[in-house]
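Researcher: I'm comparing several assemblies side by side, and this is the next one on my list. It has 1040 residues spread over two chains. Same procedure as the others: predict the full complex and return the structure.
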Amino acid sequence: MSFVKEIDYGTPAARSDKTVTLTIDGREITVPEGTSVMRAAREAGIEVPKLCANDMVKAFGSCRLCLVEIEGRGGTPASCTTPAADGMKVSTGTERLQTIRRGVMELYMSDHPEDCPACAAGDCEMARMARTVGLKEVRYGREGENHIWPAREGKANPHFVEMDLSNPYFAYDPSQCIVCSLCVRACEESQGTFALTVEGRGFESRIAAGMHEPFLESECVSCGACVQACPTGALREKSVIEKGMPEWSAVTTCAYCGVGCSFIAEMKGEDVVRMVPYKAGKANRGHSCVKGRFAYGYAIHKDRILRPMVREKITDPWREVTWEEAFRHVANEFRRIQYQYGRSAVGGITSSRCTNEETYLVQKLVRQGFRNNNVDTCARVCHSPTGYGLKTTFGTSAGTQDFDSVEQADVVMVIGANPTDGHPVFASRLKKRLRQGAKLIVLDPRRIDLVRSPHVEAAFHLPLKPGTNAAVLNALAHVIVSEGLFDEAFIRERCDWDEFQDWAQFVLEPENSPEAVEQVSGVPAETIRGAARLYATGGNAAIYYGLGVTEHSQGSTTVMAIANLAMATGNIGRPGVGVNPLRGQNNVQGSCDMGSFPHELPGYRHISEDATRAIYEALWGVKLDDEPGLRIPNMLDAALEGSFKGLYIQGEDILQSDPNTRHVADGLAAMECVVVHDLFLNETANYAHVFLPGSTFLEKDGTFTNAERRINRVRKVMEPKNGYADWEVTQKLAQSLGLDWNYAHPSEIMAEIAATTPSFAGVSYELLDREGSVQWPCNEKAPTGTPVMHVGGFVRGKGKFIRTAYVATDEKTGPRFPLLLTTGRVLSQYNVGAQTRRTANVVWHEEDRLEIHPFDAENRGIRDGDWVKLASRAGETTLRAKITERVAPGVVYTTFHHPATQANVVTTEYSDWATNCPEYKVTAVQVTPSNGPTEWQEDYEALSRRSRRIVHVEAAE
Amino acid sequence: MSHEAGYKTGEEKLVYMANQIARFFEAMPHEEAVSGVADHINKFWEPRMRRHLFEIVARGGEGLRPLVLEAAQRVKRPREADA
C-alpha cells in the first residue's frame, strides 16, 4: 500500500521565458525568472523549513522560518519572498540560520498546546518543523500570556477562544492557530470567496470567518482550501480527528460534476479518512468544492441496497434474491418480451455517473445482446443539444478548450450557467482570472453570484426573459456584423465565406436588431450593443455555457448561435478562447462519447455508416441494426402505446430527473420488466421489477471524461459493498443472455474502445498512469491528447455558419399561468440529491425553495417562508417561498434536489426541436398561498412508502 | 386535444415534433430546408416513429406544416420488420 505525497514547492511556479541560474548550498539550479529562492531550493532538492508558505498561494513572509543567507547581501531574508537572481549564492542551513529558526520556533511552541492532538497524530507541521530545526526545549514555558488555556487558577483566559465545530466537516481550534494567514490566502486566492480574515493586531490577532461568526453562519462555502493549507492542527477535517491519520492513498476522480477534479483518497483500510484535492490534477490544480472534498458519506450510507431484489408486480414488496436468480430473471423476462412483442420492445439507459467502461458495456449489451439501438442516456435531458449543435457547426460534439485556457481569456461570456454553484472549482479558476482584470458578460435571467461578488463584477449582465437566448445571441451577432467587428481573415481562412455572408444577411434582418430583441427579451438594446462590442473586441473571448442554454425548445439552435458568434469573431482554435459547455455530471461527456445515443456508435459515428458498423460486427459477431433507436421520451411514448416493455436503467433516476413526472410514471408503469441498477431505491425504482445494487466510484476502476474531454482515472480504493462493480454486473447480465463476455478488468474494456474508436485510439491505462490524464482526440496524430481543438482548422473541415432563427417557445404565460418558472441548483446539493441528501450537506439546503420577487410575492400575499402552490399546465406541487430580488419580477426559480418537491411534476413536455432535451428552464406557472402538500405529493409519498417495502431473507450467499 | 393525464399522446407529440423541426429549417432556402427536415428525421427517428409519421401523412397530414409534408417524401420508409 503506498501513500501519494505531493511535493510542496513553497511558492507557486513562475511563468517566464527567461531563466536565471543560481547556486543554493553549492548546487547550481536554473529556474524561470520570478521563481522564489524557496522554490528554487526545493527544485534543487533542498527543503527550507517553513510554516506560512505553500505552492498554491502567493508568498507572505510572516513565519520567519524560511530565512536564508545570500552572499553579498546583509541580513537573513525570507526565501519565500526573495526572487531568485542570476549568480546568486544562497545558503539555507548555516549555524546562524539554525539558531534564528530555533529561536522563532521556540516562541511559536511557547503558545502551542503541549498536548496538541494534531501534533500527536502527525497531522501538524508544527511538530515536524520543531524537529527539523532541532528545537529541544521551550525555555519560556507556557505560563505567560497565551491562547491555550481556557482558564487558569479560577480566572478565565481572555485570549482563549472556544473551538468552532459549526461546520459539519471541519473543526477550527483557535488555540492551535499561529495566524500565518495561509487559510485567509487560500480562501482569497484559490477559492475566491474572501470569507476569512485576520482580526485584531499583534498578540490579539486571530483568524475569523465572516463578521466574527461561526464558520457555518459565515459566507464560507466549505471548499476545504483553508483546511488543506493550515500548517497546524487549527483547521482539521473532523473525519481525521475521529478516525486518525490515513495509512495509504490513491489518486482518483470525483464523481460529482463535470469539472472532474482529481483527489487523493486517503484511506485507513477500507475506510476513507479524507479526500484531498490533487495538485497534479489538471482539471482542478489542487482545488476542490464541498461536494468532492467532503460529501462522500453516501458511499456508506445505510440506505444503500446491497442485495439484488425482484418482485412480480410493482405493488408487491421487494424480495431479496441471489445475484444468479436476479440475472436469470432479467434474462428470461427480456427474452420473453422480445419474443412476445418484438426485438425492439426492450432497451437500456446508460449512466453519466458510471465510468466510460461501464457505459460502453451497457450500449454494447443493447446493440449486441438486444440487437437494437434503443439506448439513451441522461445527457438527453442536459447536454444533447451541445452534441448536436457543436457537431453541426464545428464537427465534434465537445467543448473546445481545457480549463487552463481560462487563464488566458480577456473576456468571458457566461451564458445560462451558474458556475459558482454548479461547477464551483471551475468558477474559482474563472474568478481568479477575473480578479486579474478579465472582463465578464453574463446572460442569465437571474442575478447569479458571479454578476457581483467580492472583487468580481460583470461588465454586462443581460437579464433576459427565459426562452429568449437565441434572440439575444442573434442580436449580439447583429451588432458584430453591422458594426464590422467580425474577423474577416479568420472567416475566409477557416469557414465558408458564402455561408458566412448568408448568415450575416440573416442576422442583419430587422427582427434581429437589438431594439427588436429588446421587445422579446427585456434586455435593453444598449446593453446588448455594449456586450457585443466587448465580446468582439476585448481580446481573447471565451464562452462558457450551461443548461440554461440547452434545456430549451431552442437548445440546439442556441448552441449553434454560440458557435456562430465564436467563428465570426475568430475566437476558436487557440488558448484563451473557445466554446465551452459546462457539463453537469461527472461523466456526461464520456457517456456521450461511448455511444450512448440511439443513433450513434462510440466516437459519434452514425449508426447508418456501414464502415463503422462493420468494425463492431466483426468484433462482436452479430449483425447490427442500422436504424436509430428510441430516445428516453420516445421509449416512454412507445411504452404507453404498448410496443416497448422492458428497460435496463443503470444509474439514472428518470422519474425524478425527467420532465413531466406523470408521463414518466405512466410510461414505466406500462412496462413489464423495469430493471433499476443503482445505489439506492431511487424514485424510478418505485416502478421497477428488478433492483440490481450498484457500486460507488470508490469501489471500482475505470475512467471518467470531464467537460474538457479529459479522460481521468478512477481507482478502486475499497471492495464493492454490494459484491460487484457495475461493469461486472452488466457483464454477468450479458453472460446470462448468452453473450460471450470475459473482461477481467476495465482496462480490457478500454482496450476494446481504443481499438474501435479513432478518437480514443491512443488511450490505454498505461498511458493514463503515465500522463495522469489525456484529452481526446488521443491517437497517432495527438499521442498525449488534445488540450485545444480546431487549431489551424475545424474538425469538420470548414466551420459552418447556420441560420439560427428565434422561435418563441409554445410554453407561454397567460392569465392562468402568468409567471415563468426556471430551475437550477445550489452548491451544496447535486442533481436529484440522491448522493448529497445522504450527507451532512443538508445543513446548507434542507429543502427546495421557490425564489420569487418581492413584487410578485406581495401581489399574492406571500411572505418569506410561506407554503405556496406552484401550478403549471402539467401539474402542481407545493414548496416554501423565498423572497429575493435575485429573480426579476415575473420570473420564479427553484431547485430540484429533493424528491418531495416534485418540481418535475410541474415542468412540461416541451423539448428541444433537435434532440428532445426537455425545456426545464421555461414553464409558465401560477403561484398561490397554500396550506401544505398537494394530493399528488401525498399520493406519491404513500406510493413510495409502499413500493419500498423489502422482505428480508436470511443470508443466501 | 390533450390527454387528461396532462401530456400529449404519441401521435400529437409526433406532429408537434415534426413541426418543431420544420420551424428551425424554415429560416433556410427552400431546397436546403426540405432536405434538412428529411435528413433530420432519417437520422434521429426510430422506425416506429417514422411509420407513424407516414400514417399521419397518409390520412392527409392534418396538423403538419407544409414543409414536413414536402420533406416526408424524402423520409426513408421503415422496413416492415422494424416497424
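Model: For your comparison table: Residues 676 and 691 of chain A are 5 Å apart (CA to CA).
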